[in-house]
Amino acid sequence: MLVDAHAHLDLKQYAADRDETIQRAKDEGVSGIINVGIDPARWQSSLELAAQYPGYIYLSFGLHPNDILQVADPEAVMVQLEELILAHPGLVVGIGETGLDYYWKNVPPETQRRYFIKHIALARQTNLPLVIHCREAMPDLIAVLQEDARQMPIMMHCFSGTLAEAEQCLALGSQVYISLAGPVTFAKATDRHEVARQVPLDRLLVETDSPFLTPHPFRGRRNEPAHVRLVAQKIAELKNLAYEEVLEQTGKNVETLFGLTLTQSS
Ligand SMILES: [Zn+2]
Ligand SMILES: [Zn+2]
Which residues, chain by chain, have CB under 5 Å from ion ligand 1? Predict the structure, then answer.
């Protein structure tokens, strides 16, 4: 089963053709999409989108590390997040994106860390998996996970670390999954190729992060969930496995991690 484990279809990039984009995903055999809301406005737009696609679009909500200081009162927003999650059981199936991002430098690392730990506590309390974003911060991120998030269900979204770092993540517990996105299709992405080859198939997920991270050969254009097929195909090629085997196992993985039962698309 082909599933896009991470996308942002509520964004304005799809204002003109959102339904057509989702139809193309269905036509390509994508059986479900997890849409990720990264701030209060996006939680609302994600809920509205999911209401139109019951049983097809599921949600993960968090306050993105880059957006913590974009809201007037981040403490109050975390309370709002908890209320929203509790109000939508079975629809909001993950906590995040949360994590650390040292690339943009608009939120001090200590602030990011504090809110990351709040998300981890919320995930423990609600029994939901963490959807983790990490950019140029892998050693610090792994240190937080080792201290606070052992034996928790975790999706390492758009994993960009080395194989050694992937192994450190997997060692945190049996419910940790490494998720690969469009960059694994790039010719020069040797670290990602190594991760795809070496991480066991029963610990891998596939995603697009649409509208970002468009895979080869569509790089430079807007991404969309139909392209998750290209990520799965690349993993099959790198692992020297049948494409169908990659679909079957990564589909099971996403259902296990997020507690979903999806219906096979065409
Ligand atoms: Zn992200
Ligand atoms: Zn994302």
Answer: 97, 133
